[in-house]
């Protein structure tokens, strides 16, 4: 089976008109506009296979949403090419639109004043879903999302979390083969985030839909995606497994040593940089290459004084932070 | 056919919503009766001083008023609510969702929302029209009836086109409510025959704000005073306006989605 998403050197540069402050400058700008080119996406390439759940990581303004908008067909790229399910997205062929969905955590496609059930009926007609399929898909969604009575309340009366669940129902009612999710858990409390995550995973398992999602919450990515794309300043920094990300991007490991009372207070700073020390548990940062040797030395030198020792990768958040702040670059 | 089915569903959905707010619904009716009632009263008062207004008799004026409310009814029923939402969508960025539906986007934004209670204008318009017709001496011929329907349709399309073009401006300027307010201010003038106005206003009401000609032409068709010139102007103007509006809409969309950048 060919990849569902194929992206080649995709780039998008926004032209923004520059305007000085003040009334005079504003008036002048009406006749004599100066433009500045802002590259949002600067040539990225990747492929996504059918059924994959891929996480799109990057700080604000990295180009995640712009890429999602190009792939869903809302934006025309400045350069490069993309195919999703064989379609050029920005041609917005109805055949393509029927197969995809775009969900945005901070925007709603539901009509505020009416119950979601009515909006869903309209969507059924728009996507020309026959009654049998519609009822089956809807009852699946109702069960998975625990929608129950939510569908019959006006959307304005729903809480943010409830609204997001209903939003998912509206976005997936036509059983899209590809789903672009832009910050689907933004602003939700932890419990609701977990629920939405469970839903996305279960939906992917049941429907086999290909999912590309962006999130600020590392937990979303860790829970859902085996593979991540890291984008920064419009460029793709990393494309691969989540587990390998730490290895490639973090040049160091963490050693946590718990000491017995007999050895408490021993200065461990000669083994590596101490990054944590609480209740007899010392955390050391050592370079990846030296980690095995330092571990051996610790065991040898401390002997009986050592109660516990573990070797860990730094938390993924930290790795990502370092990448985005320019401290670590892929090797 | 598919689009008719869709539109029926839009209407049903919105009707349910409006019925949920019954007081509002009833008040809407009352308001309509007051508005139409006062404007009929104004015409009656006018005609207590004179028997003809620039050649238009009272009965003919009633026909004209009927056409006016009929057109206003369609505008208020479908176009105003839909276009108001469109401007909101542009402002909030939720237009994205509409553009990603496998349906003609222009159709969707023009018809998605209705204010059913405003359809009362339409019914009252028809009622006033029928009263006016029944009081006229001559029977309405088949030819005149056909011309009436034709010019009414053309007039509606012309008004729709100009509204769409105005609302499309929101792609660039985001807030265009004030422009619309100017448009509405002119439409009020449409309740009188366009030929009673001085040249510049007649021109405005026939072109930029085509409500004047859109209302007058069908009324003239019924009373038998429609000239070939007026009809040709309406037909050609409508074709040009619709073509322009559809082109302008697509141009605006391209700007919205950044195709030109």
Helical fraction of chain B equals: over 70%
Number of strands of chain B: 0
> Main sheet of chain B?
none
* Total domain count of chain A: 2
What percent of residues of chain A are in strands? 25-35%
Helix content of chain A: 25-40%
Q: Can you name the CATH architecture of the largest domain in chain A? A: 3-Layer(aba) Sandwich
The third-level CATH topology of the largest domain in chain A is Rossmann fold
Q: Provide mean pLDDT of chain B, rounded.
A: 87
Compile the SSE list and pairings.
The complex is a heterodimer of chains A (331) and B (261).
Chain A: E1 5-18, H1 23-31, E2 34-48, E3 53-57, H2 64-72, E4 79-84, H3 94-97, E5 100-104, H4 116-126, H5 131-145, H6 160-172, E6 178-182, H7 190-207, E7 210-214, H8 218-224, E8 227-232, E9 235-241, H9 242-249, E10 252-259, E11 273-278, E12 281-287, H10 291-302, E13 306-312, H11 316-324
Parallel strand pairs in A: 3-7, 3-8, 5-6, 6-7
Antiparallel strand pairs in A: 1-2, 1-4, 8-9, 10-12, 10-13, 11-12
Helix pairs in contact in A: 5-6
Chain B: H1 2-20, H2 22-49, H3 58-92, H4 95-99, H5 105-111, H6 119-135, H7 142-168, H8 170-173, H9 177-187, H10 199-206, H11 211-223, H12 228-257
Commentary on this structure:
The complex is a heterodimer of chains A (331) and B (261). Chain A has 331 residues and is an alpha/beta fold. The model of chain A has no long low-confidence stretch (mean pLDDT 87). In chain A, 35% of the residues lie in helices and 29% in strands. Helices cover 78% and strands 0% of the residues of chain B. In chain B, helix 2 runs antiparallel to helix 3 and helix 10 crosses helix 11.
Please supply descriptive tags for the structure shown above.
heterodimer; A: 331 residues; alpha/beta; Rossmann fold; Alpha-Beta Plaits; 6-stranded mixed sheet; 35% helix; globular; B: 261 residues; mainly alpha; 12 helices
